[in-house]
Protein backbone atom coordinates (compact mmCIF):
# COMPACT_ATOMS: atom_id res chain seq x y z
CA UNK A 1 0.00 0.00 0.00
CA UNK A 2 1.23 3.51 -0.81
CA UNK A 3 1.75 5.83 2.17
CA UNK A 4 -0.94 8.51 2.36
CA UNK A 5 1.49 11.34 1.61
CA UNK A 6 2.49 9.68 -1.66
CA UNK A 7 -1.16 9.25 -2.57
CA UNK A 8 -1.84 12.85 -1.69
CA UNK A 9 1.06 14.01 -3.88
CA UNK A 10 -0.15 11.87 -6.76
CA UNK A 11 -3.70 13.25 -6.47
CA UNK A 12 -2.30 16.75 -6.48
CA UNK A 13 -0.31 16.00 -9.63
CA UNK A 14 -3.44 14.82 -11.33
CA UNK A 15 -5.31 17.94 -10.25
CA UNK A 16 -7.87 15.53 -8.89
CA UNK A 17 -8.09 17.04 -5.47
CA UNK A 18 -9.37 20.40 -6.65
CA UNK A 19 -11.71 18.73 -9.13
CA UNK A 20 -13.10 16.56 -6.34
CA UNK A 21 -13.52 19.57 -4.10
CA UNK A 22 -15.75 21.14 -6.73
CA UNK A 23 -17.86 17.95 -6.70
CA UNK A 24 -18.29 17.12 -3.02
CA UNK A 25 -20.69 14.20 -3.58
CA UNK A 26 -18.10 12.49 -5.80
CA UNK A 27 -15.37 13.42 -3.31
CA UNK A 28 -17.45 11.76 -0.57
CA UNK A 29 -17.78 8.57 -2.63
CA UNK A 30 -14.03 8.54 -3.29
CA UNK A 31 -13.28 9.02 0.42
CA UNK A 32 -15.86 6.50 1.66
CA UNK A 33 -13.72 3.33 1.26
CA UNK A 34 -11.15 4.91 3.61
CA UNK A 35 -13.90 4.93 6.25
CA UNK A 36 -14.62 1.22 5.83
CA UNK A 37 -12.11 0.09 8.41
CA UNK A 38 -12.83 3.02 10.74
CA UNK A 39 -15.70 3.45 13.14
CA UNK A 40 -17.29 6.60 14.42
CA UNK A 41 -16.00 7.61 17.88
CA UNK A 42 -17.10 5.39 20.76
CA UNK A 43 -14.48 6.08 23.46
CA UNK A 44 -13.65 9.35 25.28
CA UNK A 45 -12.21 11.86 22.81
CA UNK A 46 -12.80 15.48 21.85
CA UNK A 47 -13.39 16.09 18.12
CA UNK A 48 -13.54 19.39 16.25
CA UNK A 49 -15.39 18.76 12.98
CA UNK A 50 -15.49 21.81 10.72
CA UNK A 51 -17.11 22.89 7.49
CA UNK A 52 -16.85 25.80 5.04
CA UNK A 53 -19.67 26.75 2.69
CA UNK A 54 -22.99 24.92 3.06
CA UNK A 55 -25.10 25.69 -0.04
CA UNK A 56 -28.87 25.19 0.42
CA UNK A 57 -28.87 21.83 -1.41
CA UNK A 58 -26.75 20.43 1.45
CA UNK A 59 -28.84 21.72 4.38
CA UNK A 60 -30.49 18.33 4.96
CA UNK A 61 -27.08 16.63 4.75
CA UNK A 62 -25.61 18.95 7.37
CA UNK A 63 -28.56 18.15 9.61
CA UNK A 64 -27.92 14.43 9.05
CA UNK A 65 -24.22 14.80 10.00
CA UNK A 66 -25.09 16.74 13.16
CA UNK A 67 -27.74 14.25 14.24
CA UNK A 68 -25.35 11.34 13.61
CA UNK A 69 -22.60 12.93 15.72
CA UNK A 70 -24.99 13.99 18.46
CA UNK A 71 -26.16 10.40 18.90
CA UNK A 72 -22.54 9.58 19.85
CA UNK A 73 -21.96 12.38 22.35
CA UNK A 74 -22.66 16.02 23.25
CA UNK A 75 -21.98 18.94 20.92
CA UNK A 76 -20.01 21.41 23.06
CA UNK A 77 -19.06 25.06 22.63
CA UNK A 78 -15.47 26.17 22.05
CA UNK A 79 -15.38 27.40 25.68
CA UNK A 80 -16.55 23.99 26.91
CA UNK A 81 -14.03 22.20 24.68
CA UNK A 82 -11.18 24.27 26.12
CA UNK A 83 -12.46 23.47 29.62
CA UNK A 84 -12.17 19.76 28.72
CA UNK A 85 -8.57 20.25 27.56
CA UNK A 86 -7.77 22.16 30.76
CA UNK A 87 -9.26 19.39 32.90
CA UNK A 88 -12.11 21.56 34.24
CA UNK A 89 -14.77 19.45 32.56
CA UNK A 90 -14.81 15.64 32.42
CA UNK A 91 -14.54 13.76 29.13
CA UNK A 92 -16.57 10.60 29.62
CA UNK A 93 -17.15 9.68 25.97
CA UNK A 94 -16.93 11.25 22.51
CA UNK A 95 -17.70 15.00 22.41
CA UNK A 96 -17.88 17.29 19.39
CA UNK A 97 -17.06 20.98 18.99
CA UNK A 98 -18.28 22.42 15.70
CA UNK A 99 -16.79 25.26 13.64
CA UNK A 100 -17.08 26.90 10.22
CA UNK A 101 -14.36 28.70 8.26
CA UNK A 102 -14.01 31.74 5.95
CA UNK A 103 -17.24 33.84 5.85
CA UNK A 104 -19.81 32.36 3.49
CA UNK A 105 -23.32 33.88 3.07
CA UNK A 106 -24.63 30.33 3.52
CA UNK A 107 -23.74 30.70 7.21
CA UNK A 108 -26.54 33.27 7.42
CA UNK A 109 -28.97 31.54 5.03
CA UNK A 110 -28.41 27.84 5.78
CA UNK A 111 -26.03 27.07 8.64
CA UNK A 112 -27.41 29.30 11.40
CA UNK A 113 -31.05 28.28 10.78
CA UNK A 114 -30.06 24.58 10.86
CA UNK A 115 -27.95 25.03 14.02
CA UNK A 116 -30.70 26.95 15.82
CA UNK A 117 -33.24 24.34 14.83
CA UNK A 118 -30.99 21.48 15.98
CA UNK A 119 -29.90 23.45 19.08
CA UNK A 120 -26.22 22.99 18.23
CA UNK A 121 -23.67 25.69 19.01
CA UNK A 122 -20.68 26.56 16.81
CA UNK A 123 -17.76 28.93 16.33
CA UNK A 124 -17.32 30.88 13.09
CA UNK A 125 -13.74 31.62 12.01
CA UNK A 126 -13.82 34.78 9.92
CA UNK A 127 -11.39 35.94 7.26
CA UNK A 128 -11.88 39.64 7.92
CA UNK A 129 -10.64 40.94 4.55
CA UNK A 130 -13.44 39.03 2.83
CA UNK A 131 -16.24 40.54 4.93
CA UNK A 132 -18.34 42.94 2.89
CA UNK A 133 -16.86 41.77 -0.41
CA UNK A 134 -19.25 40.44 -3.07
CA UNK A 135 -20.17 36.82 -2.35
CA UNK A 136 -19.30 37.08 1.34
CA UNK A 137 -20.99 37.98 4.59
CA UNK A 138 -21.31 41.60 5.70
CA UNK A 139 -20.53 42.84 9.21
CA UNK A 140 -24.27 43.30 9.74
CA UNK A 141 -24.72 39.58 8.93
CA UNK A 142 -21.98 38.73 11.44
CA UNK A 143 -23.64 40.85 14.12
CA UNK A 144 -26.91 38.98 13.55
CA UNK A 145 -25.07 35.64 13.90
CA UNK A 146 -23.46 36.94 17.10
CA UNK A 147 -26.90 38.01 18.37
CA UNK A 148 -28.17 34.48 17.70
CA UNK A 149 -25.64 33.29 20.28
CA UNK A 150 -22.74 32.04 18.18
CA UNK A 151 -19.03 32.64 18.77
CA UNK A 152 -16.46 34.15 16.41
CA UNK A 153 -12.79 33.45 15.93
CA UNK A 154 -10.19 34.77 13.52
CA UNK A 155 -9.08 33.12 10.27
CA UNK A 156 -6.58 35.89 9.30
CA UNK A 157 -7.19 39.02 7.22
CA UNK A 158 -6.47 37.70 3.70
CA UNK A 159 -6.63 33.91 4.07
CA UNK A 160 -2.94 33.73 3.35
CA UNK A 161 -0.69 30.75 4.05
CA UNK A 162 1.05 32.13 7.16
CA UNK A 163 4.21 30.14 6.46
CA UNK A 164 4.69 32.21 3.28
CA UNK A 165 4.61 35.50 5.23
CA UNK A 166 7.54 37.26 6.85
CA UNK A 167 7.36 37.91 10.61
CA UNK A 168 5.67 41.29 10.24
CA UNK A 169 3.17 40.06 7.67
CA UNK A 170 2.21 37.04 9.75
CA UNK A 171 1.84 39.14 12.89
CA UNK A 172 -0.40 41.56 11.01
CA UNK A 173 -2.65 38.76 9.69
CA UNK A 174 -3.01 37.34 13.19
CA UNK A 175 -3.41 40.56 15.21
CA UNK A 176 -5.30 42.83 12.77
CA UNK A 177 -8.03 40.27 12.11
CA UNK A 178 -8.58 39.90 15.85
CA UNK A 179 -8.83 43.65 16.36
CA UNK A 180 -11.19 44.13 13.43
CA UNK A 181 -13.66 41.47 14.59
CA UNK A 182 -13.52 42.90 18.11
CA UNK A 183 -14.19 46.43 16.79
CA UNK A 184 -17.02 45.35 14.49
CA UNK A 185 -18.74 42.85 16.77
CA UNK A 186 -17.86 44.19 20.22
CA UNK A 187 -16.80 40.75 21.47
CA UNK A 188 -13.42 39.54 22.61
CA UNK A 189 -11.78 37.26 20.02
CA UNK A 190 -9.46 34.67 21.55
CA UNK A 191 -9.56 31.75 19.14
CA UNK A 192 -7.63 31.48 15.89
CA UNK A 193 -7.76 29.00 13.01
CA UNK A 194 -4.82 28.90 10.60
CA UNK A 195 -5.79 28.88 6.90
CA UNK A 196 -5.15 25.43 5.34
CA UNK A 197 -3.89 24.39 8.78
CA UNK A 198 -1.07 21.90 8.11
CA UNK A 199 1.92 22.45 10.43
CA UNK A 200 5.27 23.19 8.73
CA UNK A 201 3.48 23.60 5.36
CA UNK A 202 0.86 26.25 6.12
CA UNK A 203 2.06 27.66 9.45
CA UNK A 204 5.00 27.26 11.82
CA UNK A 205 5.72 27.51 15.55
CA UNK A 206 6.45 31.20 14.96
CA UNK A 207 2.77 31.75 14.12
CA UNK A 208 1.58 29.87 17.19
CA UNK A 209 3.84 32.12 19.29
CA UNK A 210 2.58 35.22 17.47
CA UNK A 211 -1.02 34.16 18.18
CA UNK A 212 -0.25 33.73 21.86
CA UNK A 213 1.43 37.16 21.97
CA UNK A 214 -1.59 38.71 20.22
CA UNK A 215 -3.81 37.44 23.04
CA UNK A 216 -5.31 34.26 21.59
CA UNK A 217 -6.00 31.36 23.92
CA UNK A 218 -6.38 28.72 21.18
CA UNK A 219 -4.86 27.95 17.77
CA UNK A 220 -6.59 25.51 15.42
CA UNK A 221 -4.81 23.33 12.87
CA UNK A 222 -6.18 20.76 10.42
CA UNK A 223 -4.41 17.82 12.03
CA UNK A 224 -7.10 15.24 12.67
CA UNK A 225 -6.57 13.10 15.79
CA UNK A 226 -8.99 13.16 18.70
CA UNK A 227 -7.96 15.42 21.58
CA UNK A 228 -7.93 14.69 25.30
CA UNK A 229 -7.56 16.41 28.66
CA UNK A 230 -4.06 17.86 28.95
CA UNK A 231 -3.62 18.54 25.21
CA UNK A 232 -2.58 22.08 24.28
CA UNK A 233 -5.28 24.55 23.21
CA UNK A 234 -2.58 26.15 21.03
CA UNK A 235 -2.62 23.01 18.85
CA UNK A 236 -6.30 22.17 18.28
CA UNK A 237 -6.88 19.26 15.88
CA UNK A 238 -9.90 19.68 13.59
CA UNK A 239 -11.50 17.36 11.08
CA UNK A 240 -12.52 19.05 7.81
CA UNK A 241 -15.83 17.72 6.46
CA UNK A 242 -18.29 18.49 3.69
CA UNK A 243 -22.01 17.95 4.34
CA UNK A 244 -22.34 16.20 0.97
CA UNK A 245 -20.19 13.34 2.20
CA UNK A 246 -21.85 10.07 3.23
CA UNK A 247 -21.25 9.07 6.87
CA UNK A 248 -18.79 6.44 5.61
CA UNK A 249 -16.58 9.32 4.37
CA UNK A 250 -17.07 11.20 7.67
CA UNK A 251 -15.70 8.08 9.34
CA UNK A 252 -12.43 8.50 7.42
CA UNK A 253 -11.90 11.77 9.32
CA UNK A 254 -13.81 11.42 12.60
CA UNK A 255 -13.05 8.07 14.22
CA UNK A 256 -11.68 6.36 17.33
ZN1 LIG B 1 -10.17 28.80 5.27
UniProtKB/TrEMBL annotation:
Protein's name according to its UniProt entry: Polysaccharide deacetylase
UniProt GO BP: carbohydrate metabolic process
Coiled coil feature spans: none
Record-level GO cellular component terms: extracellular region
InterPro entries attached to this UniProt entry: Glyco_hydro/deAcase_b/a-brl, NODB_dom, Polysacch_Deacetylase
Domain of life according to the entry: Bacteria
Gene3D superfamilies to which the protein is assigned, alphabetical: Glycoside hydrolase/deacetylase
Organism: Actinoplanes teichomyceticus
Amino acid sequence: MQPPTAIRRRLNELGLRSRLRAHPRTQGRVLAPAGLLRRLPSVPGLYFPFYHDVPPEYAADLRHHLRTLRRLGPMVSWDEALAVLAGHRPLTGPAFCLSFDDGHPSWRDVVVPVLLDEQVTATFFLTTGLVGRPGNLTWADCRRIRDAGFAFGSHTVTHTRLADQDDTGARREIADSKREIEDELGVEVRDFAAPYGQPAVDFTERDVRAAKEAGYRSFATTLRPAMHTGDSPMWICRQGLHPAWPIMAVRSRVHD
